[in-house]
Amino acid sequence: MKRQSFIVLMVLFFTIGIAAGCSNSANEPVQGQDKPGNTPDKTNGMIRLATTTSTKDSGLLDQLIPAFTQKYGIEVQVLAQGTGQAIKTGEMGDVDVILVHARSAEDQFVAEKHGVNRRDVMYNDFVVLGPADDPAGIKGMDVTNAMKKLSEGKAKFISRGDDSGTHKKEKSLWSKAQIKPSGDWYLSVGKGMGDTLIMTNELQAYTLSDRGTYLSMKDKLNLKVLVEGDKLLFNPYGIIAVNPEKHPGVNFQGAMKLIQFITSDEGKKIITEFKVNGEQLFYIDK
After folding, report:
1. What ranges in 58-164 are assigned the alpha helix state H?
2. Which residues are CB-neighbours of 217 under 8 A, at least 6 positions away?
3. Which of 43-52, 138-147, 166-175 is the least confident region?
4. What is 186-240 written as a DSSP string?
5. Could you report the per-residue pLDDT of 13-49, keeping only the tens digit for each?
6. What is the largest CA-CA distance in the chain?
7. What is d(CA 134, CA 152) in angstroms, rounded to the nearest whole number?
8. Residues 6+ positions from 284 with CB-CB distance below 8 Å
9. Given this model, what pLDDT does residue 18 score?
10. What radius of gyration, in Å, describes the C-alpha atoms of the chain?
């Protein structure tokens, strides 16, 4: 009799276990129903943004991110890096979205399916900065001839040297001028834009900077814009969601909300109205 009771209890427990498992399975998402990339909707909580030092150093993110968080209740963890490193971080799936400025590298990032849904955000331009007395004599020149003259005169030049968008642009300008910079006059420092500007100022050297960061630090620097307006100095920014099909753990829905916000009329208004000392730093491509 005791043995029969034990068997009945075991059957009962087994039946309850199956029922509970079926109930839980019914509440779980069916594989393939979450889109895109079969990733769950994780719009709440936090997203990770890898971006350039220029968007941080200029102060723009201090305006954009709080407005986004207030609207959606999603916190944004910002990782400010050079564009090259930000793209690599995206390739590793260690962030959910990237905001960078190196169009050819961005296009490659998307072509290799690391990112999806790239959107144009804004633009400014690069400028060549140097001492007010301009000992190299490059003021007003086109950028290609200016780079040649800097090299010929071996005027001290500070390069970010960090594979950032600015560094990529600088390398393309040297290449355009058919120059491979080297020697004591050329210092590659591996720093962000802000630190590079401070070092350039201390050494009264020359450097390439995005205009936004320069304007945000202008009052602290004894450097002048010497070369500007050349079409080779155009500097567009793009935002890209990390591909959830390659990295299922990313917060794709949250990333898309940030992209939609930054490229919306509200986001554009914040970007357009962001000024330092009365000067607009970034422009929307209308």
Report:
1. 61-72, 83-91, 103-111, 143-153
2. 57, 194, 197
3. 43-52
4. EEE----HHHHHHHHHHHT-EEEEEHHHHHHHGGG---EEEE---GGGEEEEEEE
5. 333 343 344 333 333 332 222 334 444 444 458 999 9
6. 106
7. 15
8. 122, 268, 271, 272
9. 37
10. 26
- Give the C-alpha separation, 168 to 45, whole Å: 34
Q: How far is CA 104 from CA 60, 65, 162, 208, 237, in A?
A: 24, 26, 17, 19, 11
Phi/psi region, residue 26 (left: phi>0; alpha: psi -120 to 50; beta: rest), is alpha
pTM of the model: 0.77
